[in-house]
Design a protein that fits this description.
With 113 residues, the protein is mostly beta strands. Helix content is 0%, strand content 51%. The chain starts with a strand and ends with a strand.
């Protein structure tokens, strides 16, 4: 299983951060599986942001729920993260995972004007 994050590396404050995770070697609809987004701000630990299940049900961290949306595209075997109203505190390395067993390499996102 391989996962690859993609998206802009620089986002301006107040804008929406959008990242895509492309999956190979597994199907996003395989029962039962779930797919997660996790981030790590500089100098801090890992933070679970949310997940989407094989059936398309999404779950979110309570602290980020109001700004986060996770969706999937079964035709392209991808899932996406949208984080609205970003601030510099959202600067982090963002990872997509399959059940926290398989991880993408991570993508650096910096929020700055």
């Amino acid at each position: 299983v391989q996962l690859q994050e993609s998206g802009p590396g620089l986002v301006k404050p107040s804008q929406t951060l959008s990242l895509t995770c492309t999956i190979s070697g597994a199907s996003i609809t395989t029962n039962p599986t779930y797919w997660t987004w996790i981030r790590q701000p500089p100098g801090k630990g890992l933070e679970w942001m949310g997940a989407i299940t094989y059936s398309g049900t999404a779950y979110y961290s309570p602290s980020l729920k109001s700004r986060t949306s996770i969706s999937r595209d079964t035709s392209t075997n991808q899932f996406t993260l949208q984080l609205t109203s970003v601030t510099p505190e959202d600067t982090a390395v963002y990872y997509c995972t399959k059940e926290r067993r398989y991880w993408g390499q991570g993508t650096q996102v910096t929020v700055s004007s």
